[in-house]
Amino acid sequence: MTEPSDFTIPEATLTNYVITGIQEGRGPLPDQKPLRQEINAWATNPENVDQVNLFLLALARFQAIPYDEKLSYFQIAGIHGLPFKPWDEKTESQSPETRNGYCTHNSILFPTWHRPYLLLYEQRLYEIMVKDIIPTLPGDHDKLIAQAQQWRLPYWDWAVKNADVPDIVRSPNIQVLTSTGPTVIPNPLHAFRAPGPMGDYDIEAVKVDTGRNIFLLPFNIAKETSRYPPYWPPEPEKPKASTVTAWTEGVRLDDNITDALRGADWYNNPKPEDPEKPEPPKYPNDIGEVVYRLFTREYFSKYSYFASTNYEKNEEAEDRLADFLSLEAIHNNLHLWLGGGGPRDKSESGPGHMSIVPVAAFDPIFWLHHNNIDRLFAIWQTLNPNSWFSDPSEQLEDPKGNWSTAPHTIPTPKTPLAPFHDGQGTYFDSDKVRDWLKFGYSYPELQPWRFYVNGVLDEQEYIKHILEEVKILYGGHIVETFARTFNEEKHEDYIVNVEYERFALNGEPFVIHILIANSKVGQVSNFSSPLASNACPNCEVQQQDHALSTGQVPITHALFHQLTEGDTKSLAAGPGGRLKFGRDVIKRHLRPDFYSGLPQTDRPKEGLHWKVTNLYGEEIPREAIPSVKVSFAQGMAQHFRGKGVISSYGEYTLWDEITEGL
Q1: Which of the chain's termini has less CB crowding within 10 Å, N or C?
Q2: Do 406 and 415 touch, CB atoms closer than 8 A?
Q3: What is the rounded CA–CA span in Å between residue 297 and residue 96?
Q4: Strand spans (E) along 348-490
Q5: Torsion angle, CA of 377/382/388/394, rounded to 10 degrees?
Q6: Which keywords does the record carry (predicted)?
Q7: What was the pLDDT predicted at 282?
């Protein structure tokens, strides 16, 4: 292991590391590729015992490679942000004021850049399995090599009903089979562990001036990655000794992640009678629903809106109200739910590694999370094969830039995805990574080789199969409820759209909470990087030309429950017990102040409202963040009971009266 006193990252050599993906293990069917599997199903399958063992041993070895080596876990994780050094090339940052690594956020390149990043990580693990691990193990080496060739990096599907942190991630220690027999080792999926404080390896503390307080996130003292570490008080208040210890030694409060994923903070879910045996929440989180919406027909008007939170305000965009949702917006919420600082307005925990862009990739859970993002991207590509951003009208300015891209660049499919190199000695670009199958992997829903008839792909059956799988995984309770309630007929659908300036607080992350009465029904997260402390006060990057980002919170499900239960039930009671879900009912529920003449018992105490908090529990005054705009739209949805028929959404129109004066 590299000693801190010896630590330097050498300049890139002339020989670039070539990323090809794992090309072994194909077949037996023509064009068949090994699958990246869901980690819970994969890890508990007895047939995968050897693969699980190889993965854990390889990851542990990967994390122990000296940090001054280019192909170490430390340096590859550092590509995403800190320690802000070039990787596999000799360059300087094109946007130093933003303190960005190479990663692309709020950019149309968001999904494509992360694809070769995952390939790099997966390929390194495979190389370590074959070259370093298998030769040391007892048993049939040919069999183990065959298992390694079939292995692909697993993903974690956090959008399924009652999602939980995988058991294989939760355990601090784990048993593996080594050359000396069964051995218990620190679980490399649970945390990344350094031999000393990470500040010795150029990982900096993140200092945040909120205008009222100065907070410190002391990643420099951490020896391990943390999820939901203790709240570090603002300066000049001194932290407790236990807080310093927890940050130094690392803490992973994975039950908090489960609460966030399942919706324990949402809709005022009742507390379980037995805390030791928590039941799934009565009102689940909306992750599955928003993922489901990604795959419904024509939800997005074009690729750029699906791919990124980056928003270019124009007349066309204002007419496409569904476009406020995006794959990146879902990803942003997950980072805060996994790291801390997102689910609750205030808590005893603060943001950990996954919540802060420059250090997120050091947490091993980052790779499982982003592999799921790549899977959702691949599914959407298959359902929308002609949607891309080759046309200039599809291309959006990247206002922030990153290590390799100057601010205000307009990325195209030919923009280099630095620092990743292909077999031709050039950088990858989005066109080169558009087809994931050529890199030797696919996902359970995406197995086209099963749908070949006489050598020709039956596209209709293949797409039908994908939609069936999507509906089973993510349609679930919501689709069943509305299909039954409205007898498969069209009905009103309601969404809250949010736009905000990504740099409204000088790049600090923040959360926009959407509430109805006392119930939080969703949030939009700004997952961003703070400006450098030495950035010039009036620098162009900091101003960002008021670049906008977007998010969306569907609230139809929340409204349904609120209007069919409790004090508000009378509002929606129609003839013959049929639910009334139209404009008058919704207006009365969301804007009760319009009906102040009604008795208090006939209306909720308060309707739709919103607030903004930073990751330290402070509510941000609206005058400090005037760029946040919340709008309300009504559309139409139609749901079906049959497993092969996907839902439809559309016909959205702004309903300004609902958000007037909020």
Answers
A1: N
A2: no
A3: 41
A4: 416-421, 427-429, 452-453, 456-457
A5: -70
A6: Copper, Melanin biosynthesis, Metal-binding, Monooxygenase, Oxidoreductase
A7: 65
Half-sphere exposure of 488 (CA within 13 A, CB side): 5
Q: Which two tokens stand for residue 7?
A: 């630590």
Give per-residue burial for 137-174: e unless 16+ CB within 10 Å, then b: beeeeeebbebbbbbbbbbbbbbbeebbbbebbbeeeb
What does the block give as tokens for 649?
Answer: 């959404």
Instruction: Categorize the per-residue pLDDT at 91 as very low, low, confident or very high, splitting at 50, 70 and 90.
Output: confident
Place of tokens 């002609």: 386
Residues 471, 472, 474, 475, Cα dihedral to 10°: 60
Q: Is the pLDDT of residue 540 over 60?
A: no
Q: Cα–Cα distance between 472 and 479 in angstroms, integer? A: 10
Interacting residues of 21 by C-beta distance below 8 A, sequence separation 6+: 119, 122, 123, 438, 439, 440, 441
The single-letter DSSP state of residue 636 is E
Do residues 399 and 545 make contact, with C-beta atoms less than 8 angstroms apart? Answer: yes
Over residues 227-258, the pLDDT tens digits come to: 999 988 888 889 999 999 999 999 999 999 99
Q: pLDDT category, 1, cuts 50, 70, 90? A: very low
User: What length is written for the chain?
Assistant: 662
Q: Note the pLDDT of residue 349.
A: 86
Rounded Cα distance, 389 and 412, in Å: 7
Mean per-residue pLDDT over the chain, rounded = 87
Cα–Cα distances (Å) from 129 to 21, 57, 361, 422, in that order, read 15, 8, 21, 22
| Residue 655 pLDDT | 94
pLDDT tens-digit map of 276-288: 665 666 666 779 9
DSSP string, 244-301: HHHHHH--B-HHHHHHHHHTTTSTTPPPPSSTTSPPPPSS--SHHHHHHHHTSTT-SS
- 594 vs 585: CA distance, rounded Å: 12
Cα–Cα distance between 245 and 47 in angstroms, integer? 41
Q: Report the C-alpha gap between 99 and 184 in whole angstroms.
A: 39
- Give the up-direction half-sphere exposure of residue 625: CA atoms within 13 A in the CB hemisphere: 31
Indicate if the pLDDT at residue 178 is higher than 80: yes
CB 482 within 8 A of CB 490: no
For 147-156, 339-348, 467-476, which range has the lowest pLDDT when averaged over its residues?
Answer: 339-348
b/e sequence 483-501, b meaning 16+ C-beta within 10 Å: bebbeeeebbbbbbbbbbb
Helix (H) or strand (E) holding 489: none
At 212 the pLDDT is 78
Residue 512: phi and psi, rounded to 5, are -105, 115
Determine how β-strand 181-186 pairs with β-strand 206-209.
Answer: unpaired
